[in-house]
Amino acid sequence: MIVFDGVTKKYPDGTVAVHDLTLEAPTGKITVLVGPSGCGKTTSLRMVNRMIEPSSGTISLDGKDTGRMKASELRRGIGYVIQHAGLFPNRTVLDNVETVPRLVGMGKKETRDRAMQLLEQVGLGADYAKRYPSQLSGGQQQRVGVARALAADPPVMLMDEPFSAVDPVVRDQLQDEFLRLQDDLGKTIIFVTHDIDEAIKMGDQVAVMRVGGYLAQLAEPAYLLAHPVDDFVADFVGRDRGYRGLSFQAAPRLPLASERTITLGESARDVDDDWVLVVDGDNHPLGWVEPRRIDGEVTSERLHRGGTVARASGPLRAVLDAALSSPSRRGVVVDDSGALVGTVRPHEVLTAIEEAERPVVENPDNPGAPAA
Amino acid sequence: MIASTWQWLTDPVNWSGPGSIPNQILTHLWYSAIALFVASLIAIPAGLAIGHTGRGRFFGVNLAAAARAIPSLGLLFLMVLWLFPKFSGSSGSAAFVVPSLIVLAVLAIPPILAGAYAGVEGVDPAARDAAKGMGMTGMQVLRRVEIPNAMPLIFSGFRSATLQVIATATLAAVVGADGLGRFLIDGQKIRDYPQMAGGSLVVAILALVVDLLLGTIQRYAVSPGLTGRRTSASRRGRSDGVSGSAESAGRSNTPLDVEISDPRRTVDSQPS
């Protein structure tokens, strides 16, 4: 557990970067610090490993005051991932990953095995080990950055906008993979971002900070979306927060309609409907086609691919999106293996949303507190 | 003129005995090496310190720039006048050689200092931040991250200093010391132009050969991660200590496929 206790950072010129911050980052959870530029989120993060020294207040790691530890020792026990990865260009990927184990004097063989295993875990195979950072894409560099931070198996990780320098597709992928990794590792993480979507996605709890280094609200993501504490937070979490809040609501049992399907290569001539769903041999949905526009057999090029697919066990947001994006207005729902279960219409999803309960304010006197 | 220069260069008389071309080359190299060594001893630590701490930058950079403007010949005479009395007791040539070495060292300091300073300062701030954040001490950051990554610029500063020193070491002859400058000075005294031209030619060739040698050393001393040499040859060359599978896999992949070959690229929801 990382505890900020009345931490303030004031620079000699009088600027206050962080103002009396009191915050707990619970063990094994991701705590996201989010806010606009100048809100002190990065400063707060860098005070944990003492890259910046607090002016007053204490930060403790599992009860130990970090101010009393030797800075370099403290840092070796904390994984550190930064925006541009900061790999050492002169070293190979493998050598980069081995940095901290070598600093702490771990055995050669053990270090190597662990580094190779970590590279595998972050999705870079053994053939990347001998490459140099300049030979990798931004996303791959960031994977190495994550592997390097994990190399000495630190219980705590600090991640400073780790995924914001890569393109949105890769970012999404890195986020998903990191969350999967975190499920296994259970590190205590402080994660800084300026992107509220990333904060909501990555955080077990989210601390919204405002310019001047004030903590505006600390809450779980769903709670934050449903109950912003003031105008600033409401504005910051964004206008479509109602829709995004659905991400945290599991879909209830929906009235799924069974759907007439054809497989790829079949003819759609005898279907009398405006749209028909095409599936592959395993009953996995591929896309929709309009039978009256197709003469012969259905080919892959004729598929309308605009619709998204929702998992029956997934969040309501995905189900609603599937219904809204489907050209037939029938949202495709699949099971966990990806096989078609049925379809659902938008109004049915909306009914389900209406019937679902909204998260309630548990402690009206202190609406900023995370739901217990 | 060309023919007579060639004749001087190929005359066996000039290739043996004291004061011959080989002897003067050795002396010339010896002076240059001492001057470069002394200059490096001063300029590299100073440059690294300025680059690492960011302190003394204004002072160091301006001093180096000013030092470039010092006329070598003027400084040489000044040094001889100042030092000659101090060496008068000792054996002859030191009184001329030491001032020459000082002049050459002063000449070599600015480019070496600038290279070391710029090299360290140019290290990716993210890499430096990461190094520190992972728990390296200041010296470890310098030794393991800043110096290796500054190597290309340190080398380029040193090579440019070397070229200047080898070319300028001819000045030693002006005050009576040895070196390839002897051929220029002696040749001028007796109006032996082929000897002067031949001597200059030897200096030029010597400078080029030494630079070539340093270039070769640089190839091996600088990480391929910095030079962009990413051929399979360089990878094979550094294959020590890696498991065979990694190595063979690395070799089968050309560098070009690095950007696109990301097998993890999967999309969660298929479009319907």
Kindly report how far apart the N and C termini of chain A lie: 17 Å
Helical percentage of chain B:
over 70%
Helix content of chain A: 25-40%
Structural class of chain B: mainly alpha
Into which percentage range does the β-strand content of chain A fall?
Answer: 15-25%
- Which ranges of chain B are low-confidence, i.e. pLDDT below 50, for 5 or more consecutive residues? 231-272
**Structural class by SSE content of chain A:** alpha/beta
Notes on the protein architecture:
Chain A has 372 residues and is an alpha/beta fold. Chain A folds into two domains: 241 residues, P-loop containing nucleotide triphosphate hydrolases (Rossmann fold, 3-Layer(aba) Sandwich); 95 residues, CBS-domain. Helix content of chain A is 31%, strand content 22%. In chain A, the strands form four sheets. A six-stranded mixed sheet of chain A has the order 6-7-8-3-9-10, with helices on both faces. Chain A has a four-stranded antiparallel sheet with strand order 2-1-4-5, covered by helices on one side. In chain A, strands 11-12-13 form a three-stranded mixed sheet, with no helix packed on it. In chain A, helix 12 links the parallel strand 14 and strand 15. The radius of gyration of chain A is 24 Å and the shape is globular. The model of chain A has no long low-confidence stretch (mean pLDDT 89). Chain B is an all-alpha fold. Chain B has two domains: 221 residues, MetI-like (MetI-like fold, Orthogonal Bundle); 27 residues, no CATH class. Helices cover 72% and strands 0% of the residues of chain B. Chain B has twelve helices and no strands. In chain B, helix 2 runs parallel beside helix 5, helix 4 packs across helix 5 and helix 8 packs antiparallel against helix 9. Chain B is elongated. Chain B starts with a helix and ends in a 20-residue tail after the last helix. The C terminus of chain B is likely disordered. At the A-B interface, helix 2, helix 4, helix 6, helix 7 and strand 13 of A face helix 6, helix 7, helix 10 and helix 12 of B. Chain B: It comes from Knoellia koreensis. Chain B: Keywords: Membrane, Transmembrane, Transmembrane helix, Transport. Chain B: It is a multi-pass membrane protein. Chain B: Belongs to the binding-protein-dependent transport system permease family. Chain B: This is ABC transporter permease. Chain A: InterPro entries: AAA+_ATPase (IPR003593), ABC_transporter-like_ATP-bd (IPR003439), ABC_transporter-like_CS (IPR017871), CBS_dom_sf (IPR046342), P-loop_NTPase (IPR027417).
